[in-house]
Write a structure and sequence with these properties.
Keywords: Oxidoreductase. 42% of the residues lie in helices and 17% in strands. It is built from 13 helices and 10 strands. Helix 2 links the parallel strand 1 and strand 2. Helix 1 packs across helix 11 and helix 8 runs antiparallel to helix 9.
């Protein structure tokens, strides 16, 4: 199975195109305050009401995060800020952040994750602690991290034992909260392992909907850089192998094949656990948005 559509791409079948367009309905996308500043108007890029995650990178002032959420709300989108447990000092800081988001940007959705720093800055080290804190009582939607390729920061032995235990805990929490919950994953490149992972969650008793992470259109060099930084697993080896061929290195990557395979699987298996697509716009927000537009996702300005 070819993982990347390098060179001449075969035109997708009509059924594949229709399945992909339907699969993309309700997609989300991720921004950072500094990348959002470069976008003149999100309404020219995204469908109305699109969920926009706001990545909270260590060192980003909370004022910048809240201002980005406020702007997205005012332009007609649903802001979902990250809450990385390990960069939050204490309960007072957490409740202050929540209050600012709610008061200034009417935020009612949040993504909780451990965060990319090795040592916690304060009292929290996991998303489970954030969920238990009570700070998010009244939120309409809470997302947590999922790991299709495992997570070596959690399972040092290379298994998925601890990751699966955490997933089962999150499933149990979802059954005692009124908020809608889902798993948002790191970006992936190979549909087969993703399908097996999603089915494996269901078999283990984890019924949380999956929002599958997808790398948006980008140069291969860019993908490798982000894959290393984000700790992407087996997919990184595929990228490195491709990078050894200079002719392929210069050609852009687009996620058509990966997503079409998932879309067709979902069409054939309606109960399959992927609920939505979540884009990491590694090649730029505008480039990613234009790709979704080519696949039937109309921006606000076009729909008006």
């Amino acid at each position: 199975m070819a993982l990347f559509p390098f060179g001449r791409k075969a035109a997708p079948s009509a059924s594949g195109s229709a399945a992909l367009e339907h699969f993309l309905d309700g997609f989300s996308i991720e921004v950072m305050p500094r990348t959002a500043e470069k976008v003149e108007d999100f309404r020219a890029l995204l469908p109305a009401g699109t969920r926009v995650y706001i990545a909270h990178i260590e060192g980003t002032p909370i004022e910048d995060m809240v201002a980005t959420a406020k702007r997205l709300r005012e332009e007609g989108f649903e802001p979902m800020p990250h809450f990385p447990a390990r960069i939050i000092k204490d309960k007072a800081t957490l409740t202050d952040w929540v209050a600012r988001y709610q008061g200034e940007a009417a935020v009612k959705q949040a993504l909780m994750l451990a965060g990319g720093v090795a040592q916690p800055h304060g009292d929290y080290h996991s998303s489970m602690q954030l969920l238990e804190s009570g700070a998010f009582d009244g939120f309409e939607r809470l997302h947590v991290a999922g790991h299709p390729e495992g997570n070596k920061d959690i399972d040092l032995d290379g298994t998925d034992k601890m990751v699966m235990e955490a997933a089962l805990w999150k499933q149990a929490f979802s059954e005692r909260t009124d908020a809608k919950m889902a798993m948002a994953t790191q970006f992936c490149f190979d549909a087969g392992p993703v399908i097996r992972w999603v089915d494996g969650l269901r078999e283990a008793g984890v019924n949380l909907p999956v929002h599958i992470g997808v790398a948006g259109p980008a140069k291969l060099q860019t993908l490798i850089k982000f894959a290393i930084a984000c700790g992407v697993g087996p997919s990184l080896k595929v990228l490195q192998k491709r990078a050894m061929d200079v002719s392929k290195l210069l050609l852009p990557y687009e996620p058509d094949e990966f997503l079409t395979q998932l879309a067709e699987h979902k069409a054939a298996n309606p109960d399959f656990g992927i609920e939505a697509v979540h884009f990491f716009p590694l090649g730029g927000i505008k480039t990613n948005a234009e790709w979704t537009q080519r696949h039937g996702q109309r921006p606000v300005s076009a729909a008006a």
